[in-house]
């Protein structure tokens, strides 16, 4: 019989691509977790914007257990009812006519970029292959998506990288226009840069990209892996902006914690991916379909989406009050429940220190670069959990600021 595992076992047994926290969560409910020592943590990280309905939501548990008693997996040689129902939910709720299901946001973006290249190849030939992306973007960790992401630190060690990918400055339409031309097959953009610092797009920037793509017959891809499924207070952020893409990628919150992703597009473009052109073994399996269908059913409701806006106000008002007392943020930005607190010059580069201090106070937060603390909690987090979490956050901030004065 195997003995009890510890955090130190991670350092012995797991490929060292992560540096996880010193504690091991073992149980959770709503937006509160407990570690193996029985200590509680308020969850403002949401599994990196994944746990949109919190932890152990009873309706998601029921959907998973019921489907597990029927059919787990068949492979892509067969279809299943839960995934077909989820496809229809997404089609009915968005601009899309077709869905491709996979296991993650990276895979969804990989599919989107391959679709763009295939559409261009079929219609214009191999020369129309250029992809325009943006600096500080994040689209995943496959070789193709990490190359599209505009953060060289994540890609430089894996060269040679896929070619004909060009990076413009985010929110700078002139910079994008200088790169987009008739050889461009796609522009991929996050409506809100998440990993890049929680930076919302300017409406005119997205509208301008739409116009440029139309002019040069390029596909406009919105990476909504982090901003989608209610995170901004709209089901998808493109609805907030009133700019419709040709392709949309979604994952994270779509499964509410169960691994899944999807690429959504129109009938016109979907036909380019005929039988055998792309695929996945696990994508679109019945378990994912059942859970994702319940997530969509629960989140795509006016009261839930309006509740995101209300919770945004609770967070921002309280964070501004903390800032008035401690003077640590230069800006508090974001949409809905994707919020970034930008550290001012006195604390620039210290976001990790704030994150570690928060963990010691029993709070889980994210960072988005060296100088941004990021919150992406459950969309239905309670007011009491927000209030308690922010009290713990203020204590953590005081620990850092008082230490800096020593």
Care to describe what's here?
This protein has 406 residues and is an alpha/beta fold. The chain has helices spanning 7-13, 46-49, 58-68, 81-93, 105-123, 143-148, 152-155, 173-177, 203-216, 237-241, 267-270, 286-299, 302-326, 351-360, 383-405; strands at 25-29, 32-35, 40-43, 98-102, 130-134, 165-168, 184-189, 192-193, 199-200, 219-223, 247-250, 261-265, 329-335, 338-343, 363-364, 366-367, 372-375. The strands form 4 sheets. A 7-stranded mixed sheet has the order 4-12-11-10-7-5-6, with helices on both faces. A 4-stranded mixed sheet has the order 1-2-3-15. Strands 13-14-17-16 form a 4-stranded antiparallel sheet. The longest helix has 25 residues, at 302-326. The radius of gyration is 21 Å and the shape is globular. The termini are far apart.
């Amino acid at each position: 019989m195997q003995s009890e595992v510890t955090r130190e076992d991670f350092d012995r047994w797991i490929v060292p691509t992560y540096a996880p926290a010193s504690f091991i969560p073992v149980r959770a409910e709503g937006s509160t977790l407990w570690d193996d020592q029985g200590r509680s943590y308020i969850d403002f990280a949401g599994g990196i914007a994944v746990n949109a309905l919190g932890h152990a939501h009873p309706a998601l548990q029921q959907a998973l257990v019921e489907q597990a008693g029927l059919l787990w997996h068949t492979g892509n040689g067969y279809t299943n009812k839960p995934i077909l129902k989820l496809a229809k939910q997404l089609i009915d709720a968005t601009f899309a006519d077709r869905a491709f299901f996979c296991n993650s946001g990276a895979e969804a973006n990989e599919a989107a970029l391959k679709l763009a290249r295939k559409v261009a190849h079929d219609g214009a030939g191999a020369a129309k292959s250029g992809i325009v992306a943006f600096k500080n973007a994040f689209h995943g960790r496959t070789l193709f998506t990490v190359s599209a992401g505009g953060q060289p630190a994540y890609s430089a060690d894996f060269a040679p990288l896929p070619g004909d990918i060009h990076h413009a400055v985010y929110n700078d339409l002139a910079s994008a226009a200088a790169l987009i031309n008739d050889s461009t097959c796609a522009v991929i953009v996050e409506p809100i840069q998440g990993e890049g610092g929680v930076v919302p797009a300017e409406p005119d920037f997205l509208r301008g990209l739409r116009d440029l793509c139309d002019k040069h017959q390029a596909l406009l891809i919105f990476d909504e892996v982090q901003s989608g499924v209610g995170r901004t207070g709209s089901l998808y952020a493109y609805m907030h902006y009133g700019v419709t893409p040709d392709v949309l990628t979604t994952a994270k919150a779509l499964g509410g914690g169960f691994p899944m992703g999807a690429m959504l597009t129109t009938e016109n473009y979907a036909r380019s991916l005929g039988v055998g052109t792309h695929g996945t073994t696990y994508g679109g399996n019945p378990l994912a379909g059942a859970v994702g269908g319940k997530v969509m059913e629960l989140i795509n409701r006016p009261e839930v989406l309006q509740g995101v806006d209300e919770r945004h106000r609770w967070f921002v008002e309280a964070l501004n009050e903390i800032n008035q007392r401690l003077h640590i943020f230069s800006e508090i930005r974001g949409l809905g429940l994707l919020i970034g607190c930008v550290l001012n010059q006195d604390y620039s580069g210290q976001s990790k220190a704030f994150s570690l201090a928060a963990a010691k106070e029993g709070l889980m937060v994210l960072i988005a670069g060296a100088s941004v603390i990021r919150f992406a909690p459950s969309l239905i987090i309670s007011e009491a959990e927000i209030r308690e979490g922010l009290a713990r956050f203020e204590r953590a901030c005081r620990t850092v600021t008082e230490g800096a004065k020593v």
